[in-house]
């Protein structure tokens, strides 16, 4: 009841102040204010938040994000620490033209490059379905790949060694992982596929959403920035995978 908040003073009714702009519905910017990766946002919300430029950044890992990573993507180790990593904020479009909030942890060495690539992919409306930290999936790679998540950093040593994979150092980025699987043909004629649900997408001869090819922008931007594509490997194929070429 609006009338209940009118103040009556000396016979005058004082109306609550009201301008025309207050009548417009204010865009919901909460997904951006709190950087809630996975939520969709509207162009109006991005504008009200401060614009697209404000939505792309590579910065030291915020305390809340660092806390979420502990025991999941980050484990205490002598090789890589918080200062070696950066938190990237990005927006991305999915195949249905919805704009999403995304985030990624990467090595400081590639942070500016990856943020710039994600911005160019966004500007070109290159579809990326999900860009969540793997911590959402308890750092389980198979689960995040089945969900078509795109990510970079996840600490793990290669089994039986102290050698770190490129993901463990935040130097490899996986994009649209369900539709761009990893596979290796075994000598017994069987094929090992990750994620296991991606068998249909190992066949690259047909068209499907999110497919990375030599012709697309994602391939071009990463390879121009000094990364190699796992889709070009011969002993196995890793179509989702772009890793920094190191000297
Ligand atoms: Zn990878």
From TrEMBL:
Q: What keywords appear on the UniProt entry?
A: Carboxypeptidase, Hydrolase, Protease
Q: Which residues form the Peptidase M15C domain?
A: 160-244
One GO molecular function term of this record is: carboxypeptidase activity
Return the InterPro entries for the record: Peptidase_M15C, Zn_M74/Hedgehog-like
Tell me the superkingdom of the source. Bacteria
List, alphabetically, the SUPFAM superfamilies matched. Hedgehog/DD-peptidase (SSF55166)
Protein name according to UniProt: D-alanyl-D-alanine carboxypeptidase
Q: Which organism is it from?
A: Xylanibacter ruminicola (Prevotella ruminicola)
């Amino acid at each position: 009841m609006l009338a209940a908040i009118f103040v009556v003073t000396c016979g005058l009714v004082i109306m609550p102040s009201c301008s025309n702009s207050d009548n417009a519905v204010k865009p919901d910017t909460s997904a951006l204010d709190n950087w809630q990766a996975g939520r969709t946002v509207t162009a109006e919300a991005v504008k009200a938040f401060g614009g697209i430029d404000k939505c792309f950044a590579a910065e030291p890992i915020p305390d809340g994000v660092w806390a979420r990573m502990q025991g999941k993507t980050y484990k205490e180790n002598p090789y890589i620490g918080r200062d070696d990593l950066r938190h990237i904020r990005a927006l991305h479009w999915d195949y249905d033209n919805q704009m999403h909030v995304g985030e990624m942890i990467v090595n400081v060495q590639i942070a500016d490059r990856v943020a710039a690539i994600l911005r160019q992919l966004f500007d070109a409306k290159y579809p990326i379905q999900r860009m969540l930290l793997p911590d959402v999936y308890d750092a389980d790679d198979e689960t995040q790949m089945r969900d078509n998540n795109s990510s970079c950093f996840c600490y793990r040593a290669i089994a039986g060694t102290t050698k770190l994979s490129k993901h463990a150092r935040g130097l490899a980025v996986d994009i649209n992982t369900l539709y761009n699987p990893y596979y290796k043909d075994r000598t017994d004629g069987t094929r090992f596929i990750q994620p296991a649900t991606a068998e249909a997408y190992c066949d690259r001869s047909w068209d499907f959403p999110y497919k990375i090819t030599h012709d697309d922008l994602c391939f071009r931007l990463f390879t121009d920035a000094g990364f190699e594509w796992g889709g070009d490997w011969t002993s196995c194929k890793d179509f989702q995978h772009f890793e920094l070429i190191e000297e």
